[in-house]
Amino acid sequence: MDDFYIDQKGLAAYYEIQWFDKLRLNGTTEQLDSKSRRVPDSFILSNHSQNVARFIIDTLDAKRISLKNIVEVGPALGRNCYELISHIPTISSVTVVEPSSRLLSNFKQILIDGANCRFPYIKSLDELGYLGFDASSIANACKHVKFTLIKAPFENGVISSKFDLVICLNVLDQCESPKILVDALMAATALNGVLVLSCTYQWSKKHLKNESEAVNDINDYFGGGWEKLSEDENEYKIRFNDRYSLLFLSHIVAYKKVV
Asked: For the whole model, what pTM was predicted?
């Protein structure tokens, strides 16, 4: 049975968003095939994961917050985890919760196994291309970290531990109940820990069971017991065809749990 959450084309889009720059840095110079005229790398490259990781790192540094364990809900292919691990040497434990078996297995190949992967990319509306992708350098940078991979939608009870840093990026408007998700994220955050949340506000009846749970500002989810640390806006681009991408604006906030 195919993955309910994401198809092969969606997987290719995530590879492009999160790891295309590393493919080039690894020395792969082969041009991506296209059904139409060749598409330049600049149209495919995305700095979203790096920008978000920098936002998190700068927020933690500004408040002199140290951490050892983190959980990311909906990590896709793990670029944000990789950036944080690479820049915060105190991280020793990472838990990821992801309902897609396709995304989770590829996350494992890249960050844990360091496998020689097939890098899928979008060749046309209905056709993919593939390149070789050596992920060994990525896994080597993460080898000191203990990973726990959980294949499940996130809600209360999925994890029992409390974490220094809890991250959930652009998932809220893709789930049935953002309130249940936010409540579970808050419960998983340790006292004096940090919760980082982002959303593109693309609320849809396709996902939401209760439309009243949609908000215009994710700051509204936070009340007493939470100290606002920072917020920002980041562009988020995803390619659907060789020459067609959707560009979103992702709102990100960081809060410290003080009670």
From this structure: 0.96
